[in-house]
Amino acid sequence: MESEKLxxxxxxxxxxxxxxxxxxxxxxxxxxxxxxxxxxxxxxEAVNNAINHGNQQDPTKKVHLEVTYxxxxxxxxxxxxEGDGFNYSLLPDPTDPENIExxxxxxxxxxxxxxxxxxxxxxxxxxxxxxxxx
Length: 134
Known about the structure:
Blueprint: E1 2-9, H1 15-28, H2 33-54, E2 62-70, E3 74-80, H3 107-114, E4 117-121, E5 126-132
Antiparallel strand pairs: 1-2, 2-3, 3-5, 4-5
Helix pairs in contact: 1-2, 2-3
C-alpha cells in the first residue's frame, strides 16, 4: 500500500498543488481518461471546499491531502481541513427545483456522483473518496 501526503496553506492558488499530485498519481498508476476526469473534478472540488468553506481561506490553516493506492487497484484520496467542520447530512439537494439556480452547493453532490465511494468524518472536516481503477 503506497501513500503520498501533501500539506499546503489555504489559498485558492494552491489548488494547482493538488492538481499536480492527481496528475502524477494518475500517470504512475496508468489511470484511464474517464477515471482521471472523475478523480480530478472530485478531488479538486474537495480541496476547494476545504480551502474556501472549511478553512475560510485562512492562510494560517492548512489543507491535508493524502492519496493511497490500495491492493485492489483503488485510489483513496483523503482531504482534511482545519476548520470547524459541517453537518454533511444537512446539505440541500442541488437538483431540487428551488436550488437549481444557486451558484454554489454542487460540490459534494459532484463528489458523491464521481467517486465510487465517499465518506465524511471528523465532524465534516475530512472526506475520503475512493476510485476503482478497472
